[in-house]
Each structure stands twice: as C-alpha cells, then as structure tokens.
Specification:
heterodimer, A: alpha+beta, Nucleotidyltransferase, domain 5, Actin, Chain A, domain 4, Substrate Binding Domain Of DNAk, Chain A, domain 1, 4 domains, 6-stranded mixed β-sheet, 14 helices, 38% helix, B: mainly alpha, Helix Hairpins, Monooxygenase
Chain lengths: 620, 172
C-alpha cells in the first residue's frame, strides 16, 4: 500500500479511530507491556492483576511453553529447560558469554548461541519471541483488538547484532515494530512529560543484566540524547552472583549440580531484595543431598561484597559526561531506572557522585514501559496535545577493517541518528578485482577487539594499478540504530550492498515463513476473511493511487511511468473482480512496487514544500 | 540531494552563524522530516523521511563546529583545502609546531598533568585566535585561498590537541 496515508509532513493523516499501540520493556529479569489510555500511560496487568511478567520460559518436551510466573518454579525443578535472563544471550556467540554457573546446554551456532532443550533447539530470539507473544496476547485481550504496532525498548548500549535480534524476536511474535527505543530515553520521556522539565538530565539505568547511562537535553518538546554509554553485561544478576559465591564460600561448597545452583541463585536474589530495606537477612536452603544451609547476611557485608560493581557503573557515567563535554554541576537531575537502582548503596553512590539526590518518584520497574507506551502512542498517530521529537544517538562507533587488522571509524559513537557517512578506499594490489568489506562496531583500534557485524565482497572491480580504484563505502544507520552498508567502485559503478544481518541469519523470508506457519495453523478457516481483507486493502490502494495521480500525476510522472502505473491498477481491478485472494495480493504487491517511486517523489516534494514554507520569524 | 545546508536552515551563507538560531532551525527541520513523524506511512515515504533526517543531521554537524563550517564554505566556494595532499606549510608555523610537539613529548614522559593542561589551554587560545582570523578571512576579506591555509593549520593544531587529550586520559 505504497500510496496510503500521504499527508503534509508534521500533520497526521485523515481523522481516524484511536489506534491500539503498546510499549514493551523486554527486560532481563522482568518484562512489561504498557499503553496510553485516556491520554495516561498505564501498565497492562495480567488476569491476576500482576504488572510484571518474569522473563522466564520453560520448555516441556511436548506441550506449549510456559511463560512468566508459571515458569518460575520450574527453574529449580528443570533448570536445563527453564530459560532465565535470556536477554543476556541476544545477538551473542558462545565465545562472548560466561557459561560456568549456568545450567544450560549451549550449542555454538553461527552468530548466536542456541539452547539444547528437551523439545529441540531454540535460539534466544525464539525464547524472547515467546515472552513478547505472551505480552502481545495480554495487551490484545485487555485492549480488545489487534495492535497496529509496538515500541520495544533495548538497552542504549546494545550493539547492532543485539538490536537486530530484538527486532527479529518482535516480528516473530507477530508485532509490527514501530521503533526500537533506548531504555534510558524511554525513561526520560516518562519523566520529562510527567514533570514538564527543561534542562540536561542523566538517566542511570541499572537493570537485571545491563547497565546504561544516557545524557539528554530537553528543550521545548525536543528530547535530544547528547551521549550514551554503558556496559551491556553488568546488572542486578551480577550482584546476585556475588552473594551466590559468598554463600558457596560460607557453606564450604565448590561444584554444585544444576538444581542446587539454581536454588542458591534464587536464594541469593531474595536476600539481595530483602537487604534493600533490612539491615540483615537469613538465608536458608536444603540442598538435594539433604544438607542444610543457614547463614546470616548483613547489609554491610553485602555492600562490601558488591561495592566494586557499583564503582564499575561510574566509569561509563564519567565517559558519557566527557563525551557530552559536561561536568556534574551542569546536570539538572539524575533519573534512576531499573529495579537494581533500589539498592541503597547504588542510590548513595549516585547521589554522592552528582552531589544531588537522584529522582525516583516513578516506579523504576515501570518507567521504561510507560515511556515506550507514550512514544508508541505518538508513532501510531494518536495525536496527543503536545508533540515532541526524539533525537537519539548510536552508542558505539561503526567502522571498517583496513590493512594490518586496524579499524577505520566511519561513524563515531554518539552520532545523532538517522545518519550516513561515506568514505573512499582503494585497492592494495595491481589488478585487484575484488575487495572484502568487513564491518565492525566498537571503540578499539584493532579488529580483534571490536565486534564483527558483517563481511561482504565487492566483486567485478575493473583491473587497475594498485591505488587507482576508488571504492566508496557508505554506512547508513536508520532511526532504530540499525546499519546498512553499500560499497561502490566509483570509476565503473560496480555496486554491492548489505543490510547488516546478524550472522545467525534469520532472513526476512524465514521470519515470514515462521510467522505464516504459526498463523495458518491457528486459522485454517479464515480464507473467506482473508479474501475480504485483501479486497478492502486493494480497493483502498486503487482509490488512494487514483487520488494521488489526479493531484500530482501530471507534475511528477512522464507518460511511460504513468502508463505502467495505470496498467498495474487495471490488473488489480481485474483481480478484485475475479475474487481470487492470491491474485489480488500479487497484483497489490505489483501495484505497490510500481508506485513506490511515485510515492517517494510525492513525499519528497511535500517535504520540500513544507521546509521552504518556513520563515525565520516562525523558527524562534 | 544537493541541498545547500545554509538554505536548508534558512541561514545566511557566512562563517558567522547565530548558534541559537541554528539549533532552533535544526530542531524545526527535524520535527518536519524525522521518520518518527511518518511511522505509520508507507515504506517509500519512511525511506524519504529517513534520507531527509539524515541530511538534516549532516547539515547540522557541518555548520555547528567552526572548523567544519569553514571547510563546508570552502567546498561551496569550489576551493579544495587539500587536507590530505598539501602538507607544505610556512616555515614559522612548522617551527612552532616542532616546539609544541617537543613540549608535548616532555610532558608525556614526565606524566605531568599541569604541564599537559597548560599546553592544552595555550593551544586552545592559539586555535581560537586562528578561528577568528578564519572568520574575517572568509566573511570580510572573502579570500578563500588564505582561508584554506588557515583550515590546514587548524587541522594540525586540532590533531595536536587530540594527542594532548589522549595523554591526559592515559594519565588520568
């Protein structure tokens, strides 16, 4: 439907119903879904009134997976088949993760690890999709209709592979992703709109498995991320783990079986939570062999055990401030996000560092989902009274491998997205006809210290003397922070490009197939409805195209181009008349394809008109 | 898209730029073209929006920092500052460079933060003086060839400044 919904830039389309859109916080420990109802963001609870969904999935040998609270008790019973904190493995290879102390049977798959389960093999993307599907169903039941889309939050410090994996999981769960939104930015939206603030704010986001810090400037309806930093493998889990190791030491234990290990990790987490407002807590458990554990952990001992983790969070804070060119006294407020920021010594350390008490009047567990819901509502076109704009950045530099295993940075970290940058390279040898383009993400100088995102070959370079070819490599990062790369030999025009797909390689086709098969299973008797939907969509497409042609057809199209579009529309009308669903869809796709360029030109003309209409006096 | 960045932001084409006006114009353009304004539109429309938003970001970066702005004005004026190829510099500038570098090497080997900071602040004031000369060279004298030499010199100093920053980080 290439031609639907054309409107003046900055204005929403024709009046419409309230579109159902949600924000989802896909967390390491817990996940949430929220929406905007009567212009207030609210978290949608499950049927029992619980807002949080534990990010835990249990896979039985045959039956349907259990997600959330039902899966939690299975951790101790069947640790190998009960996946927790799966977010830590998104977009990660086996070599990236610490597997000791984890009960899972990892499989080293290309690009991303997989888990060997009784029911077969699953990737972290599929496990995340099961969590997201659960939340989608919760939202649709609660809102009473299909969602037009969702904003999914990701840690700001997620790299391209982790973002792509998250987007794939959402699509696999049948969600239309309106935007991947950085978690600290989502929190800032929730806070900013709540308090109508202006100024420069730091968002300190310590979640279950990731730590993020973002610095944002709020000016008259614009949220501008100035700098972001973090550690995508540091979170509440690490605090649990310190208690767990301490427990083993206290009890004189070394190697534990999967179940005992899970049990003690759970006890460690409970102890941590208890120490938020108690000075000491008792940890009691009985191991599989019947031996009891009963020890007391004081708050002070716990603080001493984990102080280095708190200090570790301050390093990215320093780095972000430096990148932003700001000192702590220029910060107007510090927003605390993530359940782990409830810990008193974290609160204290942040207050001391910034010399002001942090803001925590919103529930740190919910604030990210609420912000995402507000953004989803705006993106879905449900116009709220005050419009605002979000300008986010990429967290890590993007570059290319050059001679000698070095990385040449093309797009520096903290560049505002969307962004594009091109750089020219040349051949190294006489008569070289191909060039390998190796795309990397990270701040270090050596290839081996950065994350490899993709490799592709530019072939068919005409043979020339070394250094004579001019190869222009263009990086484009979209508003979700996802990268695509194009390489072109300038003297001959030979071109090659990739959208940087994670190496685990779920292609669009594969996702579509997996989605289709799941939908087809459920809805075998839906043929009639599908035909009727296809007819409605196709009719709308014809009407919209004809309206657009009447308006701009003469100005923007030559006779040949016009002829191709007219013919495609005739084909589509014929298909509708024949009431053949497959033919209608095919003809619709074809009509969309041939009108794509026309739609682009109309959009471009419309933007040019809007921009040239600006007067300086209106800009102030 | 061959858009003049100054025209995009409705600013006069000159080295002197009202930064507040630039910020405000940038936000205004982004709020018209950003893909988030078209999240529910067709793929073709979202693609065009992304291209415009990318252009707006590029334009903003090119005009925000004085040195980048000067480079862009040279480009508009058809003058190539030959940053890669032309390394010939007046002798007195090269002598001064050598002195800076000797001082830097000494400060680094003695790991002296005060020496590095002092060097950095003197370099800053030298760069600021050169930037204001760059302004009058472009805006008043309209001598782009002379401006190109200043840009090349500033690039040298900029690099030196980065090295001082890195040295401070390493000690820091």
């Amino acid at each position: 439907m290439a031609l639907l919904q054309i409107s003046e830039p900055g204005l929403s389309a024709a009046p419409h119903q309230h579109r159902l859109a949600v924000g989802i916080d896909l967390g390491t420990t817990n996940s949430l879904v929220a929406t905007v109802r009567s212009s207030m963001p609210v978290v949608l609870p499950d049927e029992q009134g619980r807002a949080l969904l534990p990010s835990v999935v249990y896979y039985p040998a045959e039956d349907k997976a259990l997600v959330g609270f039902e899966a939690v008790p299975m951790q101790a019973k069947e640790p190998q088949d009960t996946l927790v904190s799966v977010k830590r493995f998104m977009g990660r290879g086996l070599k990236d993760i610490q597997t000791e102390h984890l009960p899972y049977r990892f499989v080293d798959a290309p690009g991303m690890v997989q888990f060997k389960l009784k029911c077969g093999q699953k990737s972290p993307v599929e496990v995340s999709a099961d969590i997201l599907r659960n939340l989608r169903e919760r939202a649709e039941a609660s809102l009473g209709g299909e969602l037009v889309g969702a904003v999914i939050t990701v840690p700001a410090y997620f790299d391209d592979a982790q973002r792509q994996a998250t987007k794939d999981a959402a699509r696999l769960a049948g969600l239309n992703v309106l935007r991947l939104l950085n978690e600290p930015t989502a929190a800032a939206i929730a806070y900013g709109l709540d308090n109508a603030s202006e100024g420069t704010f730091v968002v300190y986001d310590l979640g279950g498995g990731t730590f993020d810090v973002s610095i944002l400037r709020l000016t008259r309806g614009v949220f501008e991320v100035v700098a972001t930093s973090g550690d995508s493998a540091l979170g509440g889990d690490d605090f649990d783990h310190r208690i767990y190791c301490w427990l083993l030491e206290q009890a004189g234990l070394s190697q534990l079986g999967g179940r005992d290990s899970r049990l003690l990790q759970q006890k460690a987490r409970e102890a941590k939570e208890a120490l938020t407002d108690k000075l000491s807590t008792q940890i009691a458990a009985v191991l599989e062999d019947g031996s009891p554990i009963n020890v007391e952990l004081t708050q002070q001992t716990y603080f001493d055990l984990t102080r280095h983790l708190v200090d570790k969070t301050l390093m990215p804070v320093r780095k972000a401030l430096k990148d932003a060119g700001l000192s702590t006294d220029q910060i107007d407020g510090v927003v605390m996000v993530g359940g782990s920021t409830r810990m008193p010594h974290v609160q204290h350390a942040v207050a001391q560092y910034f010399d002001k008490p942090p803001l925590n009047n919103l529930d740190p567990d919910k604030v990210v989902a609420l912000g995402a819901a507000i953004q989803a509502n705006v993106l879905a076109g449900n116009k709220s009274g005050d419009e605002w704009l979000l300008l986010d950045v990429i967290p890590l530099s993007l570059g290319l491998e050059t001679m000698g295993g070095l990385v040449e940075k093309i797009i520096p970290r903290n560049s505002t997205i969307p962004t594009a940058r091109a750089q020219e390279f040349t051949t190294f040898k006489d008569g070289q006809t191909a060039m390998r383009v190796h795309v990397l993400q990270g701040e270090r100088e050596l290839v081996k210290d950065c994350r490899s995102l993709a490799t592709f070959d530019l072939k068919g370079i005409p043979p020339m003397a070394a250094g004579a070819a001019r190869i222009r490599v263009t990086f484009q990062v979209d508003a979700d922070g996802l990268l695509s790369v194009t390489a072109m030999e300038m003297t001959s025009g030979v071109q090659s490009s990739v959208v940087v797909k994670p190496a685990y390689g779920l292609t669009d086709d594969e996702i579509t197939r997996m989605l289709k098969s799941s939908i087809e299973h459920a809805q075998d008797d839906m043929a009639a409805r599908r035909l009727s939907e296809a007819t409605v969509d196709a009719t709308r497409l014809i009407e919209a195209t004809q309206a657009a042609l009447a308006e701009d057809g003469d100005a923007l199209l030559d006779a040949d181009e016009r002829g191709i579009i007219d013919q495609a529309l005739q084909q589509l009308s014929a298909a509708i008349a024949a009431q053949d669903e497959a033919r209608i869809r095919q003809a619709s796709d074809e009509a969309s394809r041939v009108t794509d360029e026309f739609a682009s030109r109309r959009m471009d003309a419309s933007i040019r008109k809007a921009l040239s209409g600006q007067k300086l006096s209106e800009l102030g | 898209m061959n858009t003049n960045f100054f025209e995009l932001f409705h600013l006069p084409q000159s080295y002197a730029v009202d930064l507040q006006q630039l910020d405000s114009a940038y936000r205004d353009v982004q709020s018209q073209v950003h893909p988030d304004r078209f999240a529910m539109a067709s793929e073709a429309e979202r693609r065009v929006a992304m291209q415009w938003a990318t252009l707006a970001n590029e334009a903003y970066q090119a005009l925000k920092k004085p040195l980048a702005r000067a480079e862009y004005l040279l480009k508009l004026g058809g003058v190539d500052p030959e940053l890669e190829s032309n390394t010939s510099m007046p002798v007195d500038f090269l002598m001064a460079q050598m002195e800076w570098r000797e001082e830097l090497a000494e400060a680094v080997s003695s790991k002296s933060v005060p020496a590095l900071s002092g060097l950095s602040s003197r370099l800053q004031s030298e760069m600021n003086a050169m930037l204001s000369r760059l302004g009058s060279t472009i805006d008043q004298e309209q001598d782009l060839a002379a401006a190109a030499l200043l840009v090349r010199k500033l690039k040298f100093l900029h690099k030196l400044d980065e090295e001082i920053e890195n040295a401070l980080d390493a000690i820091g």
